[in-house]
Amino acid sequence: MSAHTQMPQPGERLEMRLETGDNRHITLRLFEAPHPRAVVIVAGAMGVGQHCYEKFARFLQANGATAITFDYFGTGASLDGHLRDCPTDIIDWGRFDAHALIEFARARYPDADLRWVGHSVGGQLLGMTPNINQLERAVTVACGSGYWRENSPPTKRVAWLLWYGLGPALVATLGYFPGTRLNMVGDLPPNVMRQWRRWCLNPDYAVGAEGAAMADQFAGVRVPITGVAFTDDEMMSRRNVESLHGFFRGTAVDLQHIAPQAVGEQRIGHLGWFRERYRDALWQGVLLPPLLG
Known about the structure:
It is built from ten helices and eleven strands. It is an alpha/beta fold.
């Protein structure tokens, strides 16, 4: 593992490439705070670029935490070449990308607490990252199992078309999933889409599809987890959320199901929380305490 870097000035954003093993590199952005209270890795949702989390990262920086955002290998700024030629899958994002980020953060900030914010698939990766127990704490946001029959109604109504029609057909025809054009999750490498489809068709999601080894990985997580879910999430139902967090049998999990109206908002949804309008309602009041407390 190696990173090509220079020291940033206070308040600046530094972009660098990180070698993650197996001839892979990812692009990360570092929002460094002087004498950080904690280092927070922000792991994004499927198909959501790291640029979407920049304002949240700057909020953490302003509150005394160093924040690290990144794009998974084969997505965003971490894509070299064409998607159809990218061999990665979701498990690789844990065993290579997330693993390397934790090593990088531990080496660069040996005396700081290391925290994790995982949005959707970014929270699922807690159960797929070999060195995850080097973290002090994790927060999952809008994170659930993805099993399609338990999805929230707006997603469930179209999930069967995605998994039994559009998804397989488009990957077979184009060699990747063109989600951006379809306004569905974003463009994805072929093996990511194939694996995700297999998981979403299984009642126990990745644990059911991959078997005992995956179940043991989830059960082996010892990091305390705070799960933040939203009652108006159009993708993840309460059952999705509880199912996924139930796989973390070896640690304490505090699940919070937040109604938008309870924090003075009309809508949050699956992809809303990282927008700056939620700075006071969610960032300050809900996410900051478990991250920096």
